[in-house]
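Appendix B: complex inputs.
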Amino acid sequence: MTLERGQRVRVSARRHEGHHRTPAYVKGKTGRIERVHASFTNPETRAYGSDGLPLQPLYLVGFAQRDLWPGRGGTADDQVYVDVFEHWLEPTE
Amino acid sequence: MGQPALLAYDRRVERGVHDRGGQPTDEPIDLAEHELADWEVLTDALVSALSRRGLMNVDELRRGIESMPRSEYEQASYYERWLFSMEAVLTEKGVLTAGELDARLGE
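Resulting structure:
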């Protein structure tokens, strides 16, 4: 676990062929670590018959809805919470 | 020339057929509850049994669903996608041989 609750993070928008659990609508977007879940087997390798090790840290990341879907209405407080693995996240300054 | 580091995040991200969260649609979303057919309950149980036996895991199930041809994905129901994936993954692993299910069903 290298990220902490409250930290601002950006989700990578790198190209990734194959199974992964990071939804397109958060790729390239910035959010905040809301919860440090735990570490889990990696679905990106487990989906191809591997044991999914080493375990990967998983976080609950909160995004402002307005950042994800500009012009869709709602309030500035409206959030979307998404579970994202650490290797998709990088801290922003 | 701005901030080159941001460019990687600004480009268009390609989506799999399943990755449709947030995509605009004019289609009404069917929120009605519905009864499961027996084959759907059995399909769910079969995936659990395969998982418990170590023959197939949920990530493989998802990968198989996501790799369905787009037109088939769009036409298939939820558990039809599970069936498609189960056959694809088990055939890939050699648990089933190609055409084995169809042959058995024809008996």
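Strands of chain A lie at 8-11, 30-40, 56-64, 79-85, 89-91.
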